[in-house]
Design a protein that fits this description.
The complex is a heterodimer of chains A (about 260) and B (about 325).
Chain A lengths: L2 H22 L2 H20 L1 H8 L7 H30 L2 H6 L7 H27 L8 H28 L3 H13 L15 H9 L2 H13 L6 H26 L4
Helix pairs in contact in A: 1-6, 2-4, 2-6, 4-6, 4-7, 4-8, 4-10, 6-7, 7-8, 7-10, 7-11, 10-11
Chain B lengths: L1 H8 L4 E10 L2 E11 L4 E5 L6 H8 L7 E6 L2 E2 L4 H7 E4 L11 H11 L4 H14 L15 H12 L6 E5 L7 H16 L3 E6 L2 H7 L2 E6 L2 E6 L1 H6 L5 E6 L2 H11 L3 E3 L4 E5 L4 H13 L4 E7 L3 H9 L6 H4 L1
Parallel strand pairs in B: 3-8, 3-9, 6-7, 7-8
Antiparallel strand pairs in B: 1-2, 1-4, 4-5, 9-10, 11-13, 11-14, 12-13
Helix pairs in contact in B: 4-5, 4-6
The chains are: A mainly alpha (about 260), B alpha/beta (about 325).
């Protein structure tokens, strides 16, 4: 068998292991989607009216329709946080050393974890969209737009997952992994998730407009609700691809460096 | 594969020369040479911190040495790590099982990673569960296993593949006497199948029981090496400790027995003893001849501390604290 197909086979084995872990401890999956759902309820239900007024230009759309794509992106952020803790816990298990002494594709452990996280996050995304629909989210997307949106979401998740896998490898304790992984969970707050960046002031606006989450949110919002996308899609894809490649090599280097002690 | 095997029979299963490793200023391995013949058991005997685990980690491709060369199963660990990995199994000091999987799932995971087909993997898992007395617990999470069960599962996982060299880092540490005996028997069975084993231990009796050759490791150096019989010949066969009621008794006994060391405080006398009935009888009759009243007598067989004292001329580091 070629190296590539062996790597694919080992990665599939590691994915099965990761899925078994999820089934063993489903709390992780549930808690990952619980936070975005609470945010949906909170922002749409509690602050919805006040914030709709602030939308100005989008007077025709309800706030939940504006908000849902943003919360979808946050779902990926929160799920990534879980991945970091997962990886950190897993690396503490003796079996990782065993994997290192076996003639298997080195990166398969990480690939399995990333693929597992990707699947979990996609499931969370579907559930969050479902709840948003129940709360009055009215997308205008046709099948092609839905597929494109799913692709964008997957791309973002892939980037965030590799990044948080690296965080999980970098941190020595689950608590440390958690605080590092708060970054992707918190960044969307200063983005176009809750209000248009045009409504923000000075440096905050500059930051919000130039951080990776904003173009991703704008792209998803455009695809799902028909607002303008402009060059957001290109920027979003570039951010995600760049992050994925950088985080992949970083995570791989950390994994190979690891048995330091 | 066949040619590889034929070629490697001529070579030792494990050969290391001049292994050195340090962490910052701390020197862990100070030039270690090892030569383990195929199908034999080699025990690295040494106290905590002597470098046993570091040696195993280097030999099993987990850690790169600062200097020295290592071949395992005929392959260089530095340049042919994957070939080495295909030939070895490692059971570490901290069990390398997946806690969130059941015993059977752990074995099936290994079967997948060793690229066995589905039916072959199931058969192998079932076989190993039976052989290691885990059939009943096969469906339970490894996290719920006792220490002995974890070690057995750990070793069973190592054996899913077709391994030729097995590293066992302190395989019986933390096991109760029954678990320890079971592990010893498992190790003996493995050797019977032609596998080469390198194990580490702090226990002289364990090395004596299992190993064809023993390397005594102290602060990163092999200070003595040989068969258990060779090493024991160099160790005085333990000692007898005699307890006395007063100084007078102690003094006259010391006079009667000659070569001995006395402890004035505790009123004890320590006499070298080779373990034979004859020398015990000689000792007692010498005491009788001079009518020395000995209050008590205890026999000490040599332990790791004695080995170190005899072979290195000094106590090993950490010995004082372990007493």
């Amino acid at each position: 068998m070629s190296t590539i197909s062996l790597a694919a086979r080992d990665s599939a084995t590691m994915l099965r292991r990761d899925v078994r872990h999820s089934l063993q401890a489903p709390a992780m999956l549930v808690s990952g989607m619980l936070v975005p759902i609470i945010f949906l309820l909170l922002f749409a239900g509690v602050f919805g009216h006040a914030l709709t007024a602030g939308l100005g230009a989008g007077a025709g759309t309800s706030y939940i329709t504006f908000l849902a794509p943003g919360i979808l992106v946050m779902t990926a952020g929160f799920a990534a946080e879980g991945t970091a803790i997962n990886v950190c816990n897993d690396m503490a298990q003796g079996i990782i050393d065993r994997f290192r002494t076996m003639a298997i594709a080195r990166s398969s452990v990480l690939t399995g974890q990333v693929t597992g996280s990707l699947i979990r996050t996609m499931i969370s995304g579907v559930v969050v969209i479902g709840v948003a629909l129940l709360l009055g989210f009215r997308p205008t997307a046709g099948p092609a737009e839905w597929i494109a949106a799913a692709g964008m979401f997957a791309l973002l998740t892939l980037a965030l997952t590799w990044l948080t896998v690296a965080f999980g490898l970098l941190a020595n304790t689950p608590a440390g992994a958690n605080s590092l992984a708060l970054i992707p969970a918190i960044l969307p707050f200063v983005s176009s998730a809750f209000i248009p960046t045009a409504a923000m002031s000075g440096p905050v606006r500059w930051f919000a407009q130039n951080q990776p989450f904003t173009p991703v949110i704008d792209t998803l919002r455009g695809l799902l609700t028909g607002t303008g996308i402009g060059d957001s899609a290109i920027i979003a894809i570039a951010w995600c691809a760049g992050l994925t490649v950088a985080a992949y090599f970083w995570a791989r280097a950390l994994y190979n460096r690891r048995p330091a002690a | 594969m066949t040619t590889n095997l034929a070629a490697s029979t001529a070579r030792p299963a494990i050969a290391a020369t001049g292994l050195r490793k340090s962490y910052g200023d701390h020197l862990v391995l100070d030039g270690i040479d090892l030569n383990v013949a195929e199908g034999t058991v080699f025990a690295l005997l040494g106290p905590n911190g002597s470098g046993k685990t570091t040696t195993v980690r280097i030999l099993s491709t987990l850690l790169a040495a600062d200097a020295g060369t290592v071949t395992v199963a005929g392959h260089d660990v530095r340049t042919q790590a994957q070939e080495v990995r295909a030939a070895i199994g490692v059971t570490g000091q901290f069990s390398a099982v997946d806690n969130l999987l059941t015993g059977r799932q752990n074995l099936l995971l290994m079967a997948d990673l060793y690229h066995l087909d589905k039916a072959g993997g199931r058969r192998r898992a079932g076989e190993l569960l039976g052989r290691f007395d885990l059939t009943e617990a096969a469906g339970k999470l490894a996290a719920t296993y006792s220490g002995g069960m974890r070690r057995r599962l750990d070793l069973a996982m190592t054996l899913v593949g077709d391994v030729r060299v097995i590293f066992l880092d302190e395989p019986t540490t933390g096991l109760d006497p029954r678990g320890r005996r079971a592990m010893w028997q498992i190790i003996r069975d493995l050797v019977g199948r032609g596998v080469t084993i390198l194990l580490t231990t702090q226990d002289l009796a364990e090395a004596d029981q299992l190993a064809d050759r023993i390397g005594l490791l102290e602060t990163g150096k092999i200070v003595a090496e040989g068969t258990p019989a060779e090493l024991k010949r160099r160790i005085p066969g333990g000692h007898i400790r005699l307890q006395f009621a007063d100084q007078a008794g102690l003094a006259s006994a010391a006079l009667a027995l000659g070569d001995s060391s006395r402890d004035e405080e505790a009123l004890t006398l320590q006499v070298p003893y080779d373990g034979s009935v004859r020398s015990l009888r000689t000792l007692l009759s010498r005491l009788d001849d001079r009518a020395v009243p000995a209050g008590g007598l205890s026999v000490h067989t040599p332990d790791l501390d004695d080995v170190f004292l005899a072979l290195t001329g000094h106590a090993h580091a950490g010995m004082e604290t372990s007493r």
